[in-house]
TrEMBL record:
Name this protein carries in UniProt: PQQ-binding-like beta-propeller repeat protein
Signal peptide: 1-21
Alphabetized SMART domains for the sequence: PQQ
Keyword set, alphabetical order: Signal
Top-rank taxon: Bacteria
A Pfam short name: PQQ_2
InterPro entries: PQQ_b-propeller_rpt, PQQ_rpt_dom, Quinoprotein_ADH-like_sf, WD40/YVTN_repeat-like_dom_sf
Coiled-coil zones: none
Domain Pyrrolo-quinoline quinone repeat: start-end pairs: 439-500
Gene3D superfamilies attached to this UniProt entry: YVTN repeat-like/Quinoprotein amine dehydrogenase
């Protein structure tokens, strides 16, 4: 592990002073912490050094004898993609059943699993088990488990299962001796079972959603309403859309499961699947709920709907150039949206991407002004047969030049800035490090400094107001997750199982350190012993990081109990 040689005392004092002036983040109850989705909690003395210890390769049991700054470790499944959330006295993580925590579901039974642990000890509290759909990988990909984060408020939790459902759970499970919902039968004796209050099945009538590979959305909620992306998508042919009229976006009463309104805007233009998560904010007095669509468009709605069970569109934004093209297997230049939009200082930020199995490709990061209305895309498409009439969007390629289609700039464009390729060194060529590639990641922004990782493993640092490129760091490994900014530091994990830690700065000479001509993260890279696909979070001054198989609670000076 590389360590910075110089310690700047003044910087440390300023950082500690800034934290003390803010309210400490106690809970992190949804993906991104709150409905704006910006992963920037408040913490102090968050570790920059730790050792995870050793693990038995057969049993997965933890040997803490060599661990450092590890409070506890909890066993997850064999593949874990769900981001952790912390609320009350528990922490929740989505994974698969590789750990076999319940006797009735041994580890060789494939499930989508949501686990609840005691946040002080890491002890398992309960498990929610989603049995695999009989239709197989077209709807419920083997071994992938629960890939989203739940939303927790008070004594209730809401999440999207791998079976195409929203479920509301009692956060106590059956540990309180009560069955809070008639939906759930009494648990198997001696098992730590989830207590289901209500369930809403997207795949059943009247919605008939057909998710592609999996259903995954990290719910957000405001007041009595939760917002959900249903994951409606293509079938196994990757061409046919089984349910073109099925809703893509929903607003649901969080207390009863009643659907308040739906929207099917992506309709027949869905490219693959839909796995983005909604964002909510009040911007210049207007409530907005913002969805990333599987057609590569960003949609904003009035959260109240139109009062008749339908959505009320505020604006929509095509996040792909009109001349980009969708080609099967990721070989094209048109992308959908997997990342979660983020609201920061009245602006919306979102990147485009594809299923990671489609590998690398050109990407786009947008800063959008959410105060405009209607079609606020950067470009509009027309045809020479009627050059003053905007043509309908087309799924594969919005503009076919050989058919007389052409592009004009949109005078109503809401694009504040666009980041894709920048010739930063002025040599007339676009280098690998000067390219924004496809991304699953969500931006994190603080002090007008934006960080985002692309799937190619580049961490980009930009000016959030202008899109100016400050610096880029190559992690030399694919990255599925998003950055964490806390305590004057930036944390990001990668597929090789390392967490890189930078100082929060737009100056590369401050964020990183020169190690014999090679710029490296200021605090080095920590080995996590397995791939890190999820995003680090902080609550109550404890850093939580999940790798594929384990969840770690990391705290300065922590010593695990024997």
């Amino acid at each position: 592990m590389h360590k910075a040689i110089v310690t700047l005392t003044l910087y440390a004092l300023v950082s500690a002073s800034a934290v003390s002036a803010q309210e400490l983040t106690k809970d992190w109850p949804m993906w991104g912490g709150d409905p704006a989705r910006n992963n920037v909690p408040v913490g102090n003395n968050i570790p920059t050094e730790w050792e995870v210890g050793e693990f038995d390769p057969e049993t997965g049991e933890w040997d803490s004898s060599t661990a450092e700054n590890i409070k506890w470790v909890a066993r997850l499944g064999s593949q874990s993609y769900g981001n952790a959330v912390v609320a009350g006295d528990q922490i929740y993580v989505g994974t698969n059943n590789g750990a076999g925590h319940l006797e009735r579901y041994p580890a060789d039974v494939d499930l989508g699993v949501l686990l609840a642990f005691d946040r002080e000890t890491g002890e398992l509290r309960w498990q929610h088990s989603s049995e695999k759909l009989k239709t197989g990988r077209v709807h419920d990909w083997p071994e992938q488990g629960i890939c989203c984060a739940p939303y927790v408020e008070g004594d209730r939790l809401w999440f999207v299962t791998s079976r195409g459902e929203v479920r509301c759970l009692d956060v106590e499970g059956f540990r309180d001796g009560e069955n809070d919902g008639p939906y759930q039968e009494e648990p198997v004796e001696g098992e730590n079972e989830a207590d289901v209050v209500w369930s809403l099945n997207f795949m059943a009538a009247p919605y008939y959603v057909s998710q592609h590979n999996m259903c995954s959305c990290s719910i957000t909620g405001v007041g009595d309403v939760i917002f959900v992306n249903t994951s409606n998508g293509l079938d196994e042919s990757h061409i046919n859309l089984p349910s073109p009229q099925a809703p893509s976006f929903m607003a649901v009463d969080k207390n009863t499961g009643e659907v308040l309104w739906t929207d099917d805007s992506p309709a027949t233009n869905i490219l693959h699947g839909q796995w983005s998560s909604p964002t909510y904010g009040v911007i210049n007095g207007q409530e907005q709920v913002i969805f990333g669509g599987g057609d590569g468009w960003v949609y904003s709605f009035d959260p109240r709907g139109d009062g008749n069970g339908n959505s009320k569109l505020l604006w929509k934004f095509d996040a792909n150039p009109k001349e980009s093209e969708w080609i099967l297997g990721g070989r094209g230049t048109r992308n959908n949206i997997i990342a979660t939009p983020v609201i920061y200082d009245g602006l919306v930020y979102v990147a485009v991407g594809q299923d990671p199995e489609h590998q690398e490709g050109i990407g786009h990061l947008w800063c959008i002004d959410p105060n405009k209305r209607g079609n606020v895309s950067p470009e509009l498409a027309f045809n020479s047969a009627d050059p003053n009439k905007e043509i309908e969007h087309k799924r594969i390629k919005a503009v076919e030049k050989d058919e007389g289609d052409f592009v004009r700039p949109n005078p109503n464009s809401a694009a504040v800035w666009h980041y894709s390729e920048q010739d930063s060194n002025g040599d007339g060529e676009i280098d690998y490090e000067e390219t924004m590639h496809r991304s699953c990641g969500t931006v994190a922004i603080k002090d007008d400094i934006l960080y985002i990782a692309d799937f190619s493993g580049l961490l980009h640092c930009l000016n959030a107001k202008t899109g100016e490129r400050y610096w880029v760091y190559d992690m030399l490994a694919q990255c599925w997750g998003s950055p964490l900014i806390v305590d004057g530091k930036v944390y990001i994990g990668d597929e090789d199982g390392q967490v890189a830690i930078f100082r929060h700065s737009s100056d590369p000479n401050v964020a990183m350190v020169d190690d014999g001509g090679e710029m490296l993260p200021y605090y080095g890279e920590i080995e996590m012993n397995n791939s890190v696909y999820s995003t680090p979070i902080v609550a109550n001054n404890i850093l939580y990081i999940a790798n594929r198989t384990h969840l770690f609670a990391i705290e300065e000076g922590a010593e695990p109990e024997e």
